[in-house]
Design a protein that fits this description.
Blueprint (H helix, E strand, L loop, with lengths): L3 H40 L16 E6 L8 E4 L4 E6 L2 E6 L10 E3 L2 E3 L6 E3 L4 E3 L8 E6 L4 E10 L5 E2 L5
Antiparallel strand pairs: 1-10, 2-3, 3-4, 4-9, 4-11, 5-6, 6-7, 7-8, 9-10
């Protein structure tokens, strides 16, 4: 013979075990769905933000004729990740990728600003406000025989290095 207390205890154990089993099954289904979504995203070629990256770009980018760059001219090549500017007789190319997390940054009145985490850089790419700890890279600028300027994003040069318009190198 069982008393009412034992029946209640057995019933609550049974309910607890049922709820626990349902929780484990639900978590397994959710994890399977999440893995499936991540696998489908990877198969579709999507990056972590769900954006589909473009085809690999050449590190060498033709940016225009030297004659197109009058003093004060600035051109952003966001798709290639840099800005080129003529400063007097010098032409410089500075990265547009924040050194904190690689986010594409925006030119601002004081230099450059990262929209993601608030890092700021002066016009030369020096960090003026974190969280970035490293200055923006500068890239090699050369003049081709065709008269076009080319930026090579695979060649990082020391900050302040520029193409000299008068010497044409």
């Amino acid at each position: 013979m069982t008393n009412d207390n034992d029946a209640a205890t057995n019933e609550s154990r049974r309910q607890f075990l049922q709820k626990a089993a349902l929780t484990v099954i639900g978590a397994g289904i959710a994890a399977t769905g999440l893995c499936r979504c991540q696998t489908e995203a990877a198969a579709a070629g999507l990056d972590d933000d769900g954006a589909k990256p473009g085809p690999p770009r050449s590190p060498k980018v033709k940016v225009g004729k030297l004659s197109d760059f009058k003093v004060g001219t600035k051109k952003s090549f966001a798709g290639s990740g840099f800005e080129i500017e003529r400063r007097g007789d010098k032409i410089v190319a500075i990265s547009l990728h924040c050194t904190h997390k690689g986010v594409l940054i925006n030119p601002s009145s004081k230099g450059f600003a990262c929209p993601a985490h608030g890092a700021q850089f002066d016009k030369d790419g020096r960090v003026t406000n974190g969280p970035a700890q490293t200055n923006l890279p500068w890239y090699s600028v050369t003049l081709l025989k065709t008269g076009e300027l080319e930026v090579d994003t695979s060649k990082v040069v020391p900050l302040g290095t520029s193409f000299d318009v008068k010497k044409k190198k």
